[in-house]
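Example complex used in Figure S2.
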Amino acid sequence: MAGIKLSAVKKIYPGAAEPAVKGVDLDIQDGEFVVLVGPSGCGKSTLLRMIAGLETVSDGEIAIGDKVVNQMEPAERDIAMVFQNYALYPHMSVRQNMSYGLKNRKMPKGEIARRIDEAAAVLEITPYLDRKPRALSGGQRQRVAMGRAIVRDPAAFLFDEPLSNLDAKLRLHMRGEIKQLHQRLKTTSVYVTHDQLEAMTLADRLVVLNHGRIEQVGRPLDLYRRPASTFVAGFLGAPAMNLIDAEVTGGALMLAGAALARGLQAEAGRVTAGIRPEALRLRAAPGGNFRLDYVEELGGSRIVHGHIGAQRIIAQTDLAQELSAEMQAELPLEELHLFHATEGHRLSMGLNQPATADPQLVGA
Amino acid sequence: MQTKRTTFRSWWLPYLLVAPQLAITLVFFIWPAGQAVYQSFLREDPFGLSTTWVGLRNYIRLFDSAEYLASFETTVIFTVCTASLSMGLSLLLAVAVDRMIRTASVYTTLVVWPYAVAPAIAGILWWFMFNPSFGILTYVLEMVGYDWNHRLNGEDAMTLVVLASAWKQISYNFLFFVAGLQSIPMSLREAAAIDGAGPVKRFFTVVFPLLSPTTFFLLVVNINYTMFDTFSTIDASTAGGPGQATTILVYKVYEDGVKGLNLGSSAAQSVILMSIVIALTFIQFRFIERRVQY
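Predicted assembly (658 residues):
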């Protein structure tokens, strides 16, 4: 087990207009579960593959434990990787798949057998040990891929979008299993995904990447509560945060000529206001500022689509919410996020917003 | 697996559409094959004036003939050498191309060229290079102290036809191997690299086993190639000689039938050859193909 330290890591592909990774600094603690998340082409997979040694590092330094690994072969880095397509050897049985990496490292036979039995028991794949991968379902293949990583007992696990080939239900299930597995093994893990929900639920620490740069690093709830930019604000959360053009005048947030919130200590001028759909309070009121367009029923709650002035706004409400064509929208001040209108970074509002948000465990 | 099925409105249209292919198969394959089987039971004089039914005597005589049995041995040696040489070399070239990124297409085009050369031309080409009097390779060999003469030395002659035949088949094998290698997902090799297998071990434990369907297919094609299509290469370079050193079965059919005008024996030989090919193909597809599936 070991931490991973990235210092000013860059990746420049020959012939590419701009670097794929533009200088990333990241300190991953021993035993931490870090999720790299971002849209396609943000450099998250490239970063992971550089840690694995499957891509060369153009500039900067990667250290696993206290060893700089820039020049090391993937095999020498003491990491195990779970691939998106599982990358199971199709001509080998499950047992052979799992033992391949151990045999190559000249581990004694007894030890190999012990480790495979142990991992197979944990992952509940013991009945399939002598099958070929093609005789397994997607979820079983996924477990075997994880088993192949576990038996190695490496310094770190690297996951490259491991759940994206599974159907929605199985993905949810395997997500839970990966979380439990990490709580049990406490091995440093780096996990790449483009699914913000997967990222939020799995991460000890979340790294949001955009255009080869880190946008924000932090605990998932901190990022959700205090996104550092419109990019992070829009990326995390479903339905996505409303990002609307507004104006601050005299301490009030003005939208379509009416104040949506008052008492701001922000500089006057144009801003981007961020409002979580679940934070918006609606009240049926003829002549209100919110015009209802349509409603999506989710069963447990509903999503209300409407507009204030010319701006489209989504609100998530519970089923008790009374709906009418015209409603008054209000926003508690502590739920408002302000961003720079052009640069997109977070603006201070002089409010004492909670900086951290830990789930409180009763009796903990 | 679901296959696409076309439904025709009229019953005769499908038959009409396959008729040209059927006609060609009948006229050029089935009919001559039937003729050969019939003729193998006859003894005829060269002009076809007298014909005697001799039953299986043509076959019995063949298997009593040391010359014919020697031709069997020559064929086995020739086939094994040519197939392994051309497949081995083309696999080596394909692996080399697979590691290249930028120049791969130029390289591929160059390697594919020999396939466009007619077999007889290939024979002549190598015959020139190895010509005992003026061949450039003979000259080089002489410098290192080897006296090459495929007109006198049977082993030299065998080497020559094996080289010429293998050279021609490399391009074909190469294309299939390149395609086969490219269909192996990159992530499998990466997984193997992380699993601590070096490049050589990676090749033999992961890449080569996954290539086995391609290898098997090429084995069937190459064996058939060496047994039949090498006729013109041999005819143009050694003409089966010296002595019987490079007379493979298909060349002997030609020699006895066309040159020697021993039609009955030649027909019997073709029938034997045909059964060998049917048997080989059957064995290969029935038994070996099952083992290369994964």
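Chain A has two domains: 4-230, 239-340. The radius of gyration of chain A is 24 Å.
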